[in-house]
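Me: I keep going back and forth on a fold encoding question. No explanation is needed for now; the record alone will do.

Assistant:
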Amino acid sequence: MQAIDAHDDLADPGLAVLGRGLPPEAEALIARAGQIRNRVAEAQALLDEAHALAPSHPATLIALYRFHFYGNRLRAARDVGERAIACAAAALGLPADWRRVEADARFRALEPMPRFWLFSLKGYAYLSARLGELDVGRAALARLAVMDPEDKVGHRVIGDVLARMGRDDLGYEDCPDIATALGAAP
């Protein structure tokens, strides 16, 4: 089997995000990896093989991301998120560095590939924060605010969590004092 050229597997980038255009061999490898996901090394090898068959197809990156994310391998998931951002940027003709991407109408329309870019950056922001790289997470969230000012991909909730870090939730507007919530006199 030959690897697919980075541009050939994205003949229609929007459809690729929806899973179309994925070589059947890669699809079968992803399915098999899902069946044996608890055997991490074997599942990882299958996903890596699927990705090698279709290196710029979003479905292989999504499968890798989910595998690592749900396996609590957050650094590996974030690394895949970076690759997904670069993949979407290439398909959209944008700079590979998300910090240099400027807003345009494609992001407001939320077509599949711009949405993939936004969700990939959202995941990257979340994972950066979870990994303790708060400045990186906040910078990614700031870029998301520029790219998606209407918060269509739900990035503000991550910013809200970061803003509340280190504060006691009791008495916060969406977390009333426990004594009041239990009906006891304050």
